[in-house]
From TrEMBL:
This is histidine kinase. Its main location: membrane. Keywords: ATP-binding, Cell membrane, Kinase, Membrane, Nucleotide-binding, Phosphoprotein, Transferase, Transmembrane, Transmembrane helix, Two-component regulatory system. It is an enzyme of class 2 (transferase). InterPro entries: HATPase_C_sf, HATPase_dom, His_kinase_dom, PAS, PAS-like_dom_sf, PAS_fold, sCache_3, Sensor-like_sf. The chain crosses the membrane at residues 152-173. It catalyses: ATP + protein L-histidine = ADP + protein N-phospho-L-histidine. Its EC number is 2.7.13.3.
Length: 516
């Protein structure tokens, strides 16, 4: 104990004593800098007026509890001094040479007032020319007194710490015994071994992180599942965002909200993940995620196959025609029957023209209905969505291909409409080109375009420039194209905007094998 006290005393003394001296030096330098910036001082030195300088420095000396403030000119002649009879005489004590050459300095010296710690700061006039030096002195006796006070403070703190440490050790020992429920170390070791065996033998993967989102436990099943998905290496103590970024367990830590049965696809393996925060005494101390292999999930199938995109298109169509019904109801109440007839005729004519145009070019009924809904949504958003006149899409021989194609087209159109929000001119072009068993789908917008460095990142799950909890649309587009064994490209062009092109195999239903 005594050895520790001696070592701590030496360490603290070597740290605090120099800091005390540096603090006093900084104080003297700060006061000198402040005085050097006062126009009264620089002008007084320029014009040879010492009376005003003497009055000002006397106030500074009294208010800041310092030994002296002396202002000298470039010939070391005093313009102020605690003893007015010394004004006009040469500065005594030396050390001003560096300051007369424009450099601040700190030194010890002995002058008419005794030993002092002095700060020298050059004074410049408003034209930037040096006209003198400000010298601020602190009594060395006071410096030594403060150092001795700090030494006694260190001793008092160490003695207090020793007493408190001894008392704390006794209390802590009693508290630990209570927390251990009277168990012996051998009992605790056995309990930990049993806990580890249970976690390692479970059929579910388990990953636990601490409050800093660093992995504190990972069982063998988790390593096996993640290894199958291509995540290898020792994960212990690593940050979960570096080891398995898609898990986003750090968000569970920050929000304190559980996530049940979350579907994550990891390099071809679908995992069903549940994540919950770990709370100790009402505080979040970590989080734990359990997961198992589940390659065919109804929710994920719905998401990837485009059922949610169907529903969105149907909602858009229903909303548009509900608006038209409201117009019809209002005109009926007002008795505007002639105008109502014209409105209905025009609406029916436009709808028939739109349906006719779609059905002539899009032979697959599911895709045709889907595009009609998207056209309605685009009109509501004030976007001009145009299907290219030479577009042609024969009916598919495989309904799953159409589902994947709707996921591709729907997410590309949604992404384009979001990009165009806030623009005055909103234009989106859609094109289908079928030839010899392959279909090329192109979606073009007149938005601001995608910077070259981001053209690979935009397809990463969770990456988005639009805020958190986004970045799924283009990821699903890429996954759907890969499932169809096709290719997805961003086509550069001379005009502003972005063009996505998906080239996928496409089998035609029945005898419709001719190229269009």
């Amino acid at each position: 104990m005594m050895l520790v006290m001696v070592v701590l005393y030496i360490v603290f003394r070597n740290q605090i004593i120099p800091q005390t001296r540096h603090a006093l030096e900084d104080k003297a330098t700060a006061i000198a800098r402040t005085i050097a910036l006062i126009p009264l001082v620089s002008e007084g030195l320029n014009e040879g007026r010492s009376k005003e300088i003497q009055a000002y420095t006397s106030k500074i000396t009294r208010r800041n509890d310092i030994m002296f403030v002396v202002v000298i000119d470039m010939h070391s002649i005093r313009y102020s001094h605690p003893d007015p009879s010394r004004i006009g005489k040469s500065f005594v004590g030396g050390g001003q040479k560096a300051a007369l050459h424009g450099e601040e300095s700190i030194s010890e010296g002995e002058g008419l007032l005794g030993k002092s710690l002095r700060a020298f700061v050059p004074v410049y006039n408003n034209r930037g020319a040096q006209v003198g030096v400000v010298v601020v002195g602190l009594s060395m006796e006071r410096v030594h007194r403060l150092i001795r006070q700090n030494e006694w403070t260190i001793i008092a703190i160490l003695l207090s710490g020793a007493v408190l440490g001894a008392a704390g050790a006794m209390v802590l020992a009693r508290k630990i015994k209570q927390m251990m429920f009277g168990m012996e170390p051998s009992d605790i070791s056995k309990l930990l071994q049993e806990r580890s065996a249970m976690l390692q033998s479970t059929r579910e993967g388990i990953i636990a992180v601490d409050h800093a989102a660093r992995i504190s436990m990972i069982n063998r099943e988790a390593e096996r599942l993640l290894g199958t998905a291509g995540i290898t290496g020792n994960g212990m103590t690593r940050h979960i965002a570096d080891y398995w970024p898609e898990l986003r367990l750090e968000q569970v830590l920050s929000s304190g909200e559980s996530r049940q049965d979350q579907e994550l696809e990891l390099n071809g393996i679908t995992l069903l993940v549940s994540s919950v925060p770990i709370q100790v005494n009402g505080m979040i101390a970590g989080a734990i995620a359990t997961f198992r292999d589940k390659t065919e999930l109804a929710v994920l199938a719905e998401r990837l196959s485009g059922i949610s995109v169907y529903a969105d298109a149907l909602r858009a169509g229903a909303h548009e025609y509900m608006n038209k019904l409201h117009v019809i109801m209002g005109m009926t109440h007002m008795g505007l029957y002639d105008e109502l007839q014209q409105y209905i005729s025009g609406t029916v004519s436009n709808y028939q023209n739109e349906i006719g145009s779609i059905t002539r070019q899009i032979k697959d009924p599911v895709m045709a209905g889907f595009l009609l809904g998207k056209l309605s949504r685009a009109r509501e958003a004030g976007t001009d969505l145009q299907l290219a006149e030479d577009s042609y899409l024969p009916e598919s021989a495989d309904p799953q291909v159409i589902h994947q194609l709707i996921t591709i087209v729907g997410n590309l159109l949604d992404n384009a409409m979001e990009v165009l929000e806030g623009q005055r001119m909103k234009e989106i072009g859609l094109s289908f080109q079928y030839e010899r068993g392959r279909l090329i789908c192109t979606v073009r917008d007149n938005g601001p375009g995608i910077p070259e460095p981001l053209r690979e990142q935009i397809f990463v799950q969770g990456f988005s420039t639009k805020g958190e909890r986004r970045g799924m649309g283009l990821y699903l587009v890429r996954k759907s194209v890969e499932k169809l064994q096709g290719q997805l490209q961003i086509i550069p062009g001379p005009e502003p905007g972005t063009t996505f092109m998906a080239d996928v195999p496409y089998a035609v239903k029945g005898d419709e094998t001719n190229d269009h």
